[in-house]
Design goal:
- By secondary structure, the chain is α/β, with parallel strands linked by helices.
- Helices cover about 35% and strands about 20% of the residues.
- The chain has 14 helices and 20 strands.
- The strands form 6 sheets. Strands 1-2-6-3-7-18 form a 6-stranded mixed β-sheet, sandwiched between helices. It has a 4-stranded antiparallel β-sheet with strand order 12-14-10-15, covered by helices on one side. It has a 3-stranded antiparallel β-sheet with strand order 4-5-20.
- α4 crosses α14.
- The radius of gyration is 23 Å and the shape is globular.
- About 40% of the residues are buried.
């Protein structure tokens, strides 16, 4: 292990430059215009895996974007860890809010990252975190210190719901057989407070359309006499939450897991500074469901949020138009026991029921995902605990996160394997936003920690 750690230190500059090259490829999975760039990124990841020492490296086509696979079997009697990550990224819009080009990575020092942070789309989510595993694997192969078998499955559709991953898992069960799945696509509390994610919220994502008159109308001639779809849509959305920020969809909370008072007390022991939180976000106050703390609102409680809303005239100057249509994209984060399919149906039924007579509405479901909670009393989790304690010098805190990684539940249902969520990002890294970044401390700390996970896991399983 000492040799692997020295190799990592000796090659830090190269590891950084290789990541910067990967970040320059705009692998936006949601936009067909970037299809060739997505393919190019897959080829680059495969090349890095092969050079690191992986065998049987493949770029496997799917009905969407390809999956990169590689493996290293050193002894069939030893445990097998499968690393999951994704090489696709979110769209960079709005481009004008970036301080530097989203696909022209730069390293800048900040108050939160005095050693420097990489500013680029995908730097944290998830190219930077995925690439840590490739470099950690390279270090262990180069020093002949890999203690267990490794498989890599790096996909290109996570940011669009991993639509084709389920079929891929079903048709490649033998190839993907393993003892645990290791994922770095989550965060730690802060660089002085390591943590391991033990729960993720699920997701129901829909798009709604509200249609009024058969054409756009002059707001002076028809205003006040004809229903304005934008006004109606705003009223309908506003009515989906009451004065206590409680979602009003009938049946929405029926299956919500009741978290014990003891567990709520424990989760609120994690370091949290409200003043710093508000300052980081540029807000004067937080807002959320009554009766819950910020930590609870973003982890153990479900939500309903408008992710985008549009309609009518949005160009330069003025146009006095009463629009024919209005649209919104809405996401609902779900907690254990809530089914995304059921919640989508409840939303659809309620949205249609509250539509006034002057408009017609349509609800179009998009992707979703199941919520998950991972156990903390297993060798898989304990290996992550020991590895982070080794490199950070203090025991990590278990915590639930508010985001969604739908494939975690999918892995368990199809492959029958639990996942360990050992991420190294920060909540302040602006993933999915302009100026996404990833600290050099976090990048190198991940590469340093991952080999210890393999060492401790192999020992615990022996």
């Amino acid at each position: 292990m000492q040799a692997a750690q020295q190799y990592i230190k000796d090659n830090q500059d190269r590891f950084l430059n290789e990541l910067l090259d990967l970040l320059r490829i705009p692998s936006v999975s949601a936009d067909p215009a970037y299809k060739e760039d997505v393919q190019r990124t897959a080829a680059s990841v495969a090349d890095h895996l092969q050079k690191a020492g992986a065998d049987n490296v493949e770029i496997i086509p799917t009905a969407g974007h390809p999956i990169v696979y590689g493996e290293k079997t050193i002894d069939a009697t030893l445990p097998t860890v499968m690393v999951y990550g994704h090489y696709d990224v979110q769209p960079a819009d709005p481009i004008d809010l970036w301080d530097s080009g989203p696909f022209d990575p730069v390293v800048k020092k900040t108050e939160a990252h005095p050693q420097g942070a990489i500013y680029a789309r995908g730097s944290c989510d998830d190219k930077g975190q995925m690439f840590m595993h490739v470099k950690a694997f390279e270090a262990m192969m180069a020093t002949n210190s890999l203690p267990c078998n490794i498989k890599f499955m790096i996909e290109g559709e996570e940011e669009v719901g991993s639509e084709h991953l389920g079929h891929f898992l079903e048709t490649h069960k033998e190839k993907l057989s393993c003892d645990v799945i290791l994922i770095s696509d989550t965060s730690i509390i802060d660089n002085d407070t390591p943590s391991i994610t033990t729960g993720l919220r699920g997701l129901s994502y829909v798009e709604v359309e509200v249609v009024g008159p058969n054409r756009d109308l002059h707001s002076g001639v028809y205003g006040g006499a004809v229903g304005n779809p934008i006004n109606v849509l705003c009223e309908m959305i506003a009515g989906m939450m009451d004065e206590n920020k409680h979602i009003t969809i009938p049946g929405f909370y029926d299956d919500v897991e009741v978290v014990s008072t003891e567990e709520r007390v424990e989760m609120n022991k994690a370091p949290f500074n409200l003043e710093h939180y508000q300052k980081d976000l540029g807000i004067n106050a937080v807002r959320g469901e009554d009766g819950y703390t910020t930590a609870e609102r973003t982890s153990i409680r479900p939500t309903l949020d408008v992710n985008g809303i549009w309609g009518g005239y949005i160009g330069e100057g003025a146009k006095t138009v009463l629009p024919s249509k209005a649209f919104a994209k809405i996401s609902m984060r779900l907690v254990p026991n809530q089914s995304p399919d059921k919640i989508t149906e409840l939303f659809k039924a309620y949205f249609e029921s509250i539509a006034p007579a002057e408009v017609k509405v349509e609800v179009r479901p998009h992707h979703g995902g199941e919520p998950v909670v991972t156990p903390t009393d297993t060798p898989e989790y304990q290996a992550a605990h020991q590895a982070m304690e080794k490199t950070f010098g203090k025991a990590p805190i278990p915590k639930r996160e508010g985001g969604s990684i739908p494939i975690v539940a999918l892995f368990e249902s199809v492959l029958g394997v639990k996942s360990v969520l050992m991420g190294f990002g920060l909540d302040s890294d602006a993933i999915h936003s302009p100026n996404e970044h990833y600290g050099l401390f976090n990048y190198y700390k991940g590469i340093e920690t991952i080999p210890y996970y393999y060492q401790y896991y192999t020992a615990l399983k022996s």
